[in-house]
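pasting 50S ribosomal protein L15 for the record, 129 residues
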Amino acid sequence: MLSVFRTPLSKKRCRGLASGGRTNGRGNNGQNARSGGHLPHGFEGGQTPFHLTVPKRGHHNPYQQHPTLVNLERVQHLIDTGRLDAEKPITMFHLRKAGIDIKDGVKILGRVLQTDYIDCREQRIFRVK
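structre below
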């Protein structure tokens, strides 16, 4: 019964005719039939590979950070459910403890008018129109 769940093992080559036979599944002759005969990925027979003909574009900043976007509606929901205390200032530590996954800081977005005062002490706070 366990053999139903087991993944099939690959055939062992060079063990007689039943396991692939004379050429071991490599075809009759040619470069790929030889040992070590496979070419690297992207090789185009001596022609300049495509990825080298395309010009480099733009700039890559290795130090760029991607802050977690948190809407004020979500903060208000966390306060309403009791996972955040509105009496204390809300920091990244409190948001992480409430279950928000934070990697590179927090950007708090505000779309609606809040009826309650929320004291957020974070890196970036934006008002979205």
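The helical segments are 50-53, 72-80, 92-97.
Strands lie at 68-71, 106-110, 124-127.
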